[in-house]
Specification:
Layout: H1 6-18, H2 27-34, H3 38-54, E1 58-63, E2 69-74, H4 78-92, H5 113-126, E3 134-138, H6 143-153, E4 157-160, E5 171-177, E6 184-190, E7 199-207, H7 211-221, E8 226-236, E9 248-257, E10 262-267
Parallel strand pairs: 3-4, 3-7, 7-8, 8-9
Antiparallel strand pairs: 1-2, 5-6, 9-10
Helix pairs in contact: 1-3, 2-3, 5-6
Domain Phosphoribosyltransferase: 112-237
Keywords: DNA-binding, Transcription, Transcription regulation
Subunit structure: Homodimer.
């Protein structure tokens, strides 16, 4: 790369870090990339670090030594999270979202790249200090959230299927009980999709009783994997009890009245 002015170098370095979260980048990479001395690179990184932390964008960690470098950990401030939640509540409480049976229509929200990206950043911030190998979800509506979260954690995504597909090769399948409908359903995961003893973060779009998430946890036992965290976009409180106790939710659905079309949404435990 050609030698850049310092202002341009700062912009390019910032973008380089933002697109490589949780990756240790040696100073020599930047020194060679910008044909600059390591001392100049260190000064630039100090400026970027200060801006990241002052603006609540994340943390820039410096590791000393021959094998050292810098690592960017995305974060999101409480103020920014509350602004996102305000938008989520405004959209979720629209009366025309109520479906027959008291279900809530959310597919349009999960199709908004900006909103999904914000939710992914919130999950990534909440689980940033966990030792993780993959982000897992079940098809289909949780997939955008899983990819958004994984992009900020710099991790691969594993998708659990509702049925076994020939393109997945040999697979492990289990039956589980849906927490809301009490029906027996099946989910499967290709053996090549996940290494044994992996550390897994589960992300899902909606949790009523938690039967689907519990099914994924049971499926992971077949791979001797460890669940390091569970993130849920919206949880419902209209159940006697959740099958899952340890999880983080962004929003909490406290009431849906099919007659009046009134929907009540409060902050999830992410904010507590």
């Amino acid at each position: 790369m050609k030698k850049l002015k310092r202002s341009a170098r700062l912009v390019e370095m910032t973008q380089y870090l933002l697109f490589r979260p949780h990756s240790l980048i040696p100073l020599t990479v930047f020194a060679e990339r910008y044909a600059s001395a390591k001392s100049s690179i260190s000064e630039d990184l100090a400026i970027i670090k200060e801006v990241f932390e002052d603006e609540g964008l994340g943390e820039l960690h410096t590791l000393a030594g021959a094998a050292g470098g810098v690592k960017f950990t995305p974060r999101i401030s409480k103020e920014a999270s509350l602004d996102i939640l305000s938008d989520i509540r405004r959209q979720l409480e629209q009366p025309d979202r109520v479906l027959p049976g008291g279900y809530l229509y959310m597919s349009d929200m999960l199709g908004q790249p900006g909103l999904v990206n914000d939710i992914g950043k919130m999950f990534a911030s909440a689980f940033a200090d966990k030792q993780l190998d993959v982000v897992m979800t079940v098809e289909t509506k949780g997939i955008p959230l899983a990819y958004a979260t994984a992009s900020f954690l710099n991790l691969p995504v594993v998708i659990v299927r509702r049925d076994n597909r020939v393109t997945e090769g040999s697979a492990v399948s289990i039956n589980y009980v849906s927490g809301s409908t009490k029906r027996i359903q099946t989910m499967s995961l290709g053996r090549r999709s996940l290494k044994e003893q992996s550390n897994v973060l589960i992300i899902d779009d909606f949790m009523r009783a938690g039967g689907t998430i519990q099914g994924m946890i049971d499926l992971l036992k077949e791979f001797h994997a460890t669940v390091q965290g569970v993130g849920v976009f919206v949880e419902s409180t209209e159940v006697d009890e959740h099958l899952i106790e340890d999880y983080i939710s962004i929003a909490k659905l406290t009431g849906v009245d099919p007659k009046t079309k009134q929907i009540s949404v409060v902050p999830g435990n992410y904010f507590t």
